[in-house]
Amino acid sequence: MKPLLFGFMLASLLLGCASAKKNVQRTTDSVFASPFYDQQFTGVLILDAGTKDTLYARNSEKYFTPASNTKIFTLFAALQFLPDKIPALKYVTQNDTLYVEGTGDPSFLHPHFMDSTALNFLHGHRNISLHLDNFVENRYGPGWAWGDYQYYYQPERTAFPLYGNVVTLHNSESVKVVPTYLYDKVVPIDYTLRRELDRNLFYFGKTRKDTLEIPFKTDTTLIKTLLEDVLGKKLSLADRMPAGEKNVLYSLPSDSLYRRMMHKSDNMIAEQLLILASSTLSDTLDGGKVRDSVLSNQLADLEQPPRWVDGSGLSRYNLFTPESMVQVLSKLHEQVPEQRLFDIFPAGGVSGTLEDWYPGNPDPYIYAKTGTLGNVHCVSGYLVTNSGKTLIFSFMNNHYRHQSSEIKKRMQLIFETIRDTY
Question: Which H/E stretch holds residue 392?
Fold first, then answer.
């Protein structure tokens, strides 16, 4: 190619990119110029994944309550520590007894995953002794709402989760209860509470036709009893594991947990993933150690280190900037093949929490995680333009008094303009 022709083509390309970038900035600025945004706090950062060029920035270095966008950091942490398959149990065999301790695996007896690896393993041993004292964090995260103990999205955190740490209730010809052991703890009346605060007494009216999930209050005795019930044999409790190297039993593919966490915004799985990751560091289960390790090592280069206090984003103590979100999303994009990464994230108009928003024309163009609390709505992830470019973005809205649907409409306008013009 002649130098003159090459130079002309390069100049045309650069001018076209500059024009597209200005169009993105102009359109986005016009949306934010509306009085709609006068009484709320909004932060945005949009980055070209290929060139690392910043297309748009607004309050991108300021801290926001991220809600479930926190799960992006949890996903990153899990990918750093966990293997391709989930460590389901740690165990030692001594004489005729199998000694077992939990790793925090949230999939054991979980109705969604239907994985029987750990259950079949335990069925194969006559004498089993459980060590259940290796989890050192509180059952609830810092800053969680105390009144939410009765709602499906705030189960307790444990070393040995069972059934997703919830009781599942459904009316057909009679009340169906899973786990069945808790059947006698269900009172068939309509009541303002779903469960008593300090005990496992549940309320589920006879006329209800929906399926209800209610977190149960966990303790050592209940975990042991539920396991005895499903295994059909008595178990013992151990004060400690025997000395010696522990074996690890692996179960289902890790990506199945990641997809469930991101698509359904599953708080229980998010919390347990950090606990599960800590099982690869030591025998003491502590999600805080994982957060500290990631921030001190893999994410030591963040321009605005976050306040990161849980795995799910339930806590309003969490504080993240759009820039730190984009930095982590960029690292994920560099470390994980794009097809696998986009499969883990919900797709706009197709799956998970994005099923009803940001539809493609016809193919999905948004792969992102939402985060919603009262007066908080954030979306962070990846946008694929019509020209084939992948963009990385974080769009965070705090302290608004509008309907969240109005927030989403304006974001969708910006996203579609970027998709069609950049």
Answer: strand 390-398
- Residue bearing the bigger pLDDT, 12 or 411: 411
Residue with tokens 């493609």: 360
- Residue 67, by phi and psi: left (phi above 0), alpha (psi -120 to 50) or beta? left
In 3-state terms, what secondary structure has residue 48? Answer: strand
Q: Phi and psi at residue 343, in whole multiples of 5°?
A: -70, -30
Q: What is the pLDDT of residue 1?
A: 56
Domain with CATH 3.40.710.10 in the chain: 20-66+320-421
Q: What is the pLDDT of residues 270-296, one digit of tens each?
A: 999 999 999 999 999 999 999 999 999
CA distance 349 to 367: 10
Beta-strand relationship, 127-131 and 97-102: parallel
The percent of residues in the chain predicted with pLDDT above 90, rounded, is 91
10 pLDDT tier (thresholds 50, 70, 90): very low
Nearest to 397 by CA among 415, 418, 379: 379
Helix %, strand %, coil % for the chain, to 5?
Answer: 35, 25, 40
pLDDT value of residue 2: 60
Query: In sequence order, which ranges of 39-108 are alpha helices (DSSP H)?
Result: 70-81
pLDDT band at 9 (very low <50, low <70, confident <90, very high): very low
**Inter-residue contact 200 to 216 (CB < 8 Å):** yes
- The whole-angstrom separation of Cα 384 and Cα 363 is 10
Tell me which of 20-29, 75-84, 104-113 is least confident: 20-29
| Length of the chain in terms of residues written | 422
- Cα separation, 188 vs 362, in Å, equals 47
The continuous run of DSSP H or E covering 56 comes out as strand 54-58
- CATH 3.40.710.10: does it fit domain 20-66+320-421? yes
From the list 371, 322, 375, 328, the residue with the least C-alpha distance to 58 is 322
pLDDT for the residue 18: 74
Place of tokens 């259940």: 132
- From residue 169, alpha-carbon distances to 148, 185, 191, 215 in Å are 18, 11, 15, 11
